[in-house]
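Subject: two folds for Thursday's group meeting

Dear M.,

Sorry for the delay on this. The cluster queue was jammed most of the week, so I only got both jobs back this morning. I'm pasting them in the order they finished. Each block is the input sequence followed by the predicted structure tokens. Could you check whether the formatting survives your parser before we put anything on slides? The first protein is the one we discussed after the seminar.
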Amino acid sequence: MCGIVGAVAKRNIVPVLVEGLRRLEYRGYDSCGVAAIDGNGVARCARSVLRVADLERQIRDTKLLGETGIAHTRWATHGAPVTHNAHPIFSHNMIALVHNGIIENYAALRKSLRASGYKFVTQTDSEVIAHLIYSVYRDDLFSAVREAVKLLHGAYAIAVFSKNQPHRLCCARGGSPLVVGLGEHEHFLASDTLALAGSTNRFIFLKEGDVVELTLDSVRIASRNGELVQRLVHTVNTYSDAVELGPYRHFMKKEIFEQPQAIADTIAHIDAFDPELFGTGASDVFKETDSLLILACGTSYYSGLTAKYWLESIAKIPTQVEIASEYRYRDSVPNHRSLVVVISQSGETADTLAGLKHAHALGHSNTMAICNVESSTIVRLTTLRFLTHAGTEIGVASTKSFTTQLVALFVLTVTLKWLRSNTDAGLQTQYLKQLRHLPAALNSVLALEPQIIAWAKAFSHKENALFLGRGMHYPIALEGALKLKETSYIHAEAYPAGELKHGPLALVTKAMPVVTVAPNDILLEKLKANIQEVRARGGQLYVFADADTRIVNDEGLHVIRMPEHYGLLSPILHVVPLQLLAYHTACARGTDVDKPRNLAKSVTVE
């Protein structure tokens, strides 16, 4: 949520701070601010409860500039999202501070400081830290911060300057991430290297308990036990090789491998399929719902298409899935007993937002958001919501957002079934057990990566590909084709396998790879017939087959065996190898995996 940026230099650093805030906007926030000291030692501040653009306007209008500064985007916890609670926060017009995290013992510290004569002008827990630092400050900011943080319980990342010590910044990390950026006669800090892209490519990843002093030409780091230490310097050459990538080359691969944890986090609070998982009053809304209308774009649209199979086969509820940009511009017949479900990773997708507003205008009062960002516009505009807890997703090609959306939609499906037909407790337990086993099952699928890399080498020389699926795996084929085209720039199309004879079969030659999703379900024998149609035309088949399908490697038939059949949740497992195939094909072709040309992570314009 919150974001921190700071810098000390011999130039006006305010534009760097503002740009850093803009890069951190994806985190979500409800206020923002910047404070800076100019060359004459004058400190000034600007804050906004609007967007970073409004803060930038204030800075421009007031000609705020400085060579030492800190900036912040805040998501309110303690204190309302109003201007006087926005960061940076000052103590005695001397100490300026920005803070991410929550101080658990702030009430006791606040009481103690008030007894010592300190006056509080905000409702934040962060103001306690500023006053604490001031209370022990003796013209040595580094020592004051080191002493003050010893009294803090909870999570924090802080950045601090003192008005009478220009060209000096201090920061500390205790539970929230913080990184130091190294420059030539200037240094930076931020909660994410993304904020500093273009300013430096050399970073120190701070460890838990570190306290740091930055000057123009030096970086001093004290560890949790007070010793001065050296930390490794990492070179990060591009935006996409950002901090905490660990062993991964790209965010996309990192996020593919984060899916077991993302799903575990998404279902962590689910002990039963209770309507209240979707918000207060969900039970009443669900009881009066006789159909669903799902609105989404791109990958989120494919999650909706998958859910249509679940909703109609399990919950027996009619479901319509529409591309949001089409829905908003056509005449439709509203059913006011429909539940309108909007799906968006960022919650700021312009066409999905517009589709939601169009639904409101048509009289749809029951709406739900499935989203990864709690503070997003879509969440604020809907009656109900389900947060996917996928964590920040930087790669443009959505991966963990898709699978967590599918989990959310499955939970919705079973909840509606339970409410509409009083599903027995044994079946509920079975569904919960399957959901909880998903992270382990996904880890088994991820172990197939070496085999997929071998396929990717062959794919990297192709310019076209077909993807086939049947039933609820047809949308998974669509998603696989989308991933391949957006990351590797290979033209890819997906079809229901039964449609081969209605046109696509004309494209099949030895030069055309045909990727097939082959779960062991009721459509397997039909799918095998479709596979033979491709083989008869010389097509090269690449099949992801469940272990018990009896589809084996042969001339023109390449098979990767999936670890297990997972029934109704099989689409969540089968999409992961398709993600890996797209990723490794893109790597083999040398494309910019995390930032595909012409694409943006959050499409906030029509």
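Second protein, same layout:
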Amino acid sequence: MRDPYEMTEVEVPLIEQLQSYGYTYLTGAEIDDRKERRATGSFVLEKRFVQAVRKLNPWINESNLDKILGEFTIIAEPDDFVANQSVHNKLFGHGLVAQQDLGTGKKSHTVQLFDFEQIENNDFLVVNQIRYENAKGTIKPDVVLYINGLPLVVIECKSPKLKWDKQLPEGVKQFNRYQETHPKLFWYNQMLIVTSRDRARIGTIGARPQHYGLWKDPYPLTIEEVGSERPQDILVAATLRKEAVLDLMWNFIVYDGKVKKLARYQQYRAVNKTIERMLTEHKPENRGGVVWHTQGSGKSLTMVFLAMKLRRLKELENPMLVIVTDRQDLDNQITKTFNNCNFPNPTQARSVTDLQQQLSKGPGTTIMTLIQKFQGAEEDGTGFPIVSKSSNIIVMTDESHRSQYKGLALNMRKALPNASFIAFTGTPIDQKKRSTTGKFGSYIDKYTIEQAVADGATVPIMYESRLPQLQVKGETLDELFKRVFHEYDEDGRERIKQKYVNEELVLTSPDRMEQIAIDLVQHFEQHILVNGYKAQVVAVSRAAAVKYKELIDLYAGGNFEAAVIFSAGQNDVKEMREYHITKQEEKDLIERFKKPFHEDKLAMLIVCDKLLTGFDAPIEQVMYLDRPLREHNLLQAVARTNRKYDENKHYGLIVDYFGVSRFLDEALEILVRMM
């Protein structure tokens, strides 16, 4: 028997809120009484769909109306996910065309299925307890939202009396049961919502409970405008108002391989704030700014969503988009993200000359480039040329801290003097000579480490200091030098120290590395590998990385595999050259590392500089750190462990063999001051 609280405390208030936003409300019984569909087994409200298509396309004839209806009632795809992707593409992607003679001969005409400009021209209907029947039985979802006759949102209501940790999982299980018996309902679905009034989350088909997202901010509304602080009311106000629900479905859903992804609230907010600034500011230098979203919160996808919406806004006249990074692995990673999400025609600049050619193509071009390709012909003093004075160019930079304050950045701005520049970063810089906001403009949106952890977007990062007697302490080294070279003055001691001794020499002493390797392997096997997670080891140099590889292989005894990834040097000795690999071999190692341990025993990547930024491997739980890192470089590195993976990964871990705690404190203090 259904819990009465589910109806009175959850379902009814939700329907009433939607009615206040202009939705029409009908019960499932009224749908059948009015014969809104051909049969109780039909998922499309055919009468409403045909009326909507006719209204939005007054030129269309009856024959084409039947064909368009057939596109959504007769779907032949190999599986439900592909069918869902196909329907989304028809509705919000490439769309549909109809062949018809409108007086100038038979031609193809685009069929409009929604009016994204005049929202009230669409039909919004909320239905509860509607029956869907087939040979496997009958289901009655709690609430279904129909837009122009199509069931695009399904909502499962749970009683607030149900134990709190059962509400979301039970709702997702219910969706899974519906999908097993009535899969066609989910061909049309764009968003799934589970709510119990005080807990509400939103997701997409195939998502596990941990991947359903909170929606804490009702942007562009305020909490006061919503009139309630209850999570259900905020989520409904933010995602299901007429303008918002069509915006989300059109601009904020992508298919990344076999995963359907819906924007999180911070992504939706950041994109629309950026769009608002673009539309209201007329000077290019005022249209840019900084999106500060902590690592692991989905900045790459935010850039995809922004690019999609920038492309579609008529006011921006199909701008040129330039996506800039400063490392090859970042460039490859973000290009892969754009390609996986089927963003149309992103092109990677292959060289300095190719970049200049790409930039000269004009509107509609999407260019992915390393900032290093803005090199000028410095030897003859010509520098990088002015390529375009158009103001219809938008440059997005991703984590390019080391390169946005020097000659290459000046070349980029010289080449595109009227472009708008937007920085996406998890670790902004605020120094006299280097300031992210000073370079790009004021903050557009902020999403902090604490917010990401509280939302469950990332897992918290724990810190553990090990082998303190082996850590390198700057103060200890200084004291040692003073005692041994006491007869020299301070300048003399400094010259000796710089010439003969450095941190790398101390860090790579054989006894020290052997002790750390033994401790590291034991810690990894006992605390990390036992749960199926993997690790990175960060060494002070390429030579140290190779030595750690040899020691770890020795002490692991075949229980797991380790691999070294570093940039090859032309003058590397034979021992180093043995670890030189091609770009494809590096990609293969990374793909192996991302697989579950029961599928691939490669469980540890040993690096020096590579894979410390932009590297996304949720299976990684621990980073063993044995090199000095500071400020944003340190924050970037440790965040490799904060990605969500499964329900058992509750935290990421930094195991510190160097003694970076003081640097970590300094970096966090800088971030706190900037908030």
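Two things I noticed about the second structure. Residues 510-528 form the longest helix (19 residues). Confidence is low (pLDDT under 50) at residues 472-477.

Cheers,
T.
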